Structure formats: structure tokens, C-alpha cells
Amino acid sequence: MAAGDLDPATPPAPAPGDVVAAPDFVGVGVQKAGTTWWYDTIAAHHAVHGPARRPKELHFFDRFWGEPFGADDIVAYRRWFARPAGQLAGEWTPRYLHDWWVPPMLAAAAPATRVLVLLRDPVERYLSGVAHELSSRGRSDPAIPGDALRRSCYAAQLERLLAAFPADQVLVQQFERCVDQPRLERSRAWDFLGLEPDLAAPVPAATNVTSGLRPEMSGAVLEALERELSADLHRLVRMQFDIDPARWPSAERLLGEGSG
For the sheet containing 114-119, what is the strand order? Predict the structure, then answer.
């Protein structure tokens, strides 16, 4: 099922015998970091109820920036996660981390859910995000780079997330590490979700996370971008998450001599 084929406010009826409850896990970010591939990799476990009647990305909370959110909406959200008893169900909408109104609403709808975040080199993510938006819109728009910059400021977004969820309910992983060590990193995610190892589960091949032509930035624009990202990356590496900046090509420039 494609995301465009559904109305998030109208979940399908559960199958006979299904358990209807809040999602066991929700991926919240980030755009252009391989989240579709990583969701499929995690969902290959036999005890994860895959998205046969539900897309990977629900975008359920998108509209609530300008609409009331209440008890009926919580019921509707949970109905998307009907699954057989004993199986886990979840979704992964990358913009949830970016949209500042989502974390408290998600916490109200699914207070015990396990929250997954996949990060990518912030400069690479920025370039990929701009290319994606330019390709999608078919025209240049000065709002695109500002939005892409905010999406690459990971510490600011994670701080908002931690205001809604305790740290032990949040797992942050790096796309580059997942590509290099997919089985090890998937085992970390499965363990975080309380799943036993599933040796028969396949590991899908990593997919291209960039679509469209990347922008050609002048040296001055690139320097300004890196200045904006530098302070945020310094904050990120001081947070309690297991982030290895050496995995990111841009980190040496962004962190400079003050990384310690």
C-alpha cells in the first residue's frame, strides 16, 4: 500500500482476532537517511507484522499543526496497528522528528512505544534532501535549503524528542554504520525492541538514499552551511547516544579542533 492511497484519519478495519493497540515501535527520522531500507531490514523479523495493510509511512500527525488533536485521534492512530497476538507492529515516518508538534502527540498516543531514529552525515543528508525536494517540486524554491538545514540539525530535534520520551525508549543509529555492519546493527535494533535473534531473516540490500541532481553550492554557501551545522553536531556528540562522528565524512570539518 502506498502512502498516497490512504486517508490517515481512516484506518482499515482489523482482521478477526487481531489485537488493536498502540504501535510497539515508531521510526521518526530522518529524511534521506535510508529509513525505508532500514525499516524493511528490521521488519524482516518473523515476529514483526509487516505493512501489508499499512504503509511504512503513515504521516498521521502531519495535519495536527493546525487542527485539534484529541482522544478520538488517538483511537484512530492505534487502529492502524491491528496485528495478530504476539506480533509487533510499527511505522516509520521520517518527518516526525522534524515536526516540532509531533513528539508530544506521539507520546500521548503511544507512551510506551520504542522510538527509532536513523541519522546520516548531516552535510550529505542536506545535499540529498535538497536534491529530493528540487526533483519533487520541479522548480527552485528558497524555502528548500532552510528546511533541509533544519532537518540536518539533529541535536535540536533529538532534544525535542527527549522532552517527550525517556532516553531509554529511544534508539539512535547511523546509516553509515548500518550499511557497514547491517546484521550487527539490526541485532541492536531487534534487542531494543525485545525481539530474539532471527537468523533466517534476510538483510535487504541498502538502497540509494539520493534522488535528483544535487545543488552546486559556492564555497561561501558551503562554509555558511557548515558553520550552521557545526554547533549542532558538537551538541549531538555530547548527548548520550552512541554516535561515532568518524563515520561521517563531514564531521572532521564540522567539529574541528573543539570536538573534545
Answer: 90-92, 25-29, 114-119, 170-174
